[in-house]
Write a structure and sequence with these properties.
By secondary structure, the chain is of the alpha+beta class. The protein contains twelve helices and five strands. 69% of the residues lie in helices and 8% in strands.
């Protein structure tokens, strides 16, 4: 898959770049400044060190002249130590400033011309057979200019051919070489220029292809990240729906079953009491038939919020058990604590005004509640406490409604 993607990038390169100067075109033209910053940031430490390498190169060349050509050493020393080395040292210090990155390509052209011109003007008049030593120096300068200093193809090419013109003019009018020697010495420089251009072109083209590839991959990663965020939110929403009742926004039957099972065996392990409260809205079916489902839903939501509000502890869980029936799981609680919660719910219900002419109670909204408490055992089942709480609720419904019944106890309220 990646090979196919890379192939597509290569095929599209001609559509994204100008064939002559390699600058991005069409929809990619706005990426030129981004590529420029990215390219120089990537190689900036190397570019900075090139200043020092150039100083080192010229001074090594100076030592070479000192031992082999003592009579030429002084002239070369003036150019190397007096002009070129200070300029490169200045460039090294300037490289620590941000503006240098943006203007480096201009400096690169200047450096190529500076080093090449320095070598040309170091030649004696006439150079005689020593000219090949300078040609080697110019070829080395070309190699550095086209490859090592990370100049763009267009910058390096302009500097390379300008240097060649300077060389031809210098040896023709100042050094007055013979035509045959001019041609024979110029030919290696022409070939080096052509080869250097090919290498520089392919290096920059590869850098731009890599940049486009990385840019497209980054865009795809951003799109994928957006999709993942949306998917994550959708999963969270689905998870919420799977554990919470959509109407009342409190825990649903599924969460109730899982929590009751886990709390039961957790209490059994630590020998703690577990209390379960089952609650049922009185006369809800008659209310729903009389006032319609919209009012019935509003009724359910308001009652659910009161039940949830009074289940204050982090270990308490208020749930919609089904229809108009609710449940509260109270971990490490006894019947007195459960009775206190139920009484608070009754008190808050009295403040809730929902006109219910179907209710025989003097209060508009009433609940029947059944409480069951148990000390779970490891070989027991949560169905035991659920059955006990359900029977207590059934008893509350059958003995007049709007009351609290504790399982296994005659106590009612």
């Amino acid at each position: 898959m990646l090979k196919k993607y890379l192939s597509n990038v290569n095929n599209k390169q001609s559509a994204t770049c100008n064939r002559l100067n390699l600058k991005f075109i069409n929809d990619y033209s706005e990426l030129e400044s981004t590529f420029h910053d990215s390219y120089h940031n990537k190689f900036y430490l190397h570019i900075r060190m090139c200043h020092l390498y150039s100083i080192f190169f010229f001074n090594i060349y100076s030592l070479f002249f000192f031992f082999l050509f003592p009579d030429l050493h002084e002239r070369y020393n003036i150019i190397s130590l007096g002009i070129i080395s200070p300029i490169f040292l200045t460039g090294f210090f300037l490289s620590f400033f941000n503006f240098y990155k943006k203007t480096y390509q201009y400096f690169a052209v200047f450096y190529i011309l500076l080093t090449g011109t320095g070598i040309i003007f170091a030649m004696p008049t006439p150079p005689d057979n020593d000219i090949w030593l300078y040609i080697i120096g110019l070829i080395t300068c070309y190699i550095f200019g086209y490859t090592y200093i990370h100049a763009y193809f267009l910058s390096a090419s302009i500097a390379g051919w300008m240097l060649l013109v300077i060389y031809v003019l210098t040896v023709s009018f100042l050094n007055r070489l013979s035509p045959s020697l001019i041609i024979s010495s110029t030919l290696p420089l022409v070939m080096t220029n052509v080869l250097g251009m090919l290498v520089s072109y392919n290096l920059e083209r590869a850098a731009r292809q890599d940049f486009i590839l990385q840019w497209r991959l980054t865009r795809e990663e951003e799109k994928l990240a957006d999709v993942n965020i949306k998917l994550s939110k959708a999963n969270e929403h689905l998870l919420h729906l799977s554990f919470y009742d959509e109407l009342t926004q409190i825990a649903n039957r599924r969460q109730f079953d899982e929590r009751l099972h886990s709390d039961y065996y957790r209490c059994a392990r630590y020998k703690l009491p577990l209390t379960l409260v089952m609650l049922d809205i009185d006369h809800f079916k008659l209310f729903n038939d009389r006032y319609g489902h919209q009012e019935g839903d509003k009724y359910l939501k308001e009652v659910a919020q009161i039940i949830d509000k009074n289940s204050k502890r982090s270990t308490d869980l208020a749930t919609r058990y089904g229809g108009e029936e609710f449940a509260i799981i109270l971990y490490n609680s006894d019947t007195d604590h459960a009775m206190h919660i139920c009484q608070r719910i009754q008190r808050d219900l009295k403040k809730l005004f929902i006109p219910d002419k179907t209710s025989s109670s003097k209060n508009n909204v009433t609940l029947s509640m059944g409480i069951a408490c148990d000390y779970p055992s490891s070989d027991g089942s949560s169905d035991t406490i659920l059955k006990a709480a359900d029977e207590a609720l059934y008893k509350a419904k059958n003995t007049g409604r709007d009351r609290i019944v504790i399982a296994g106890n005659k106590r009612e309220k």
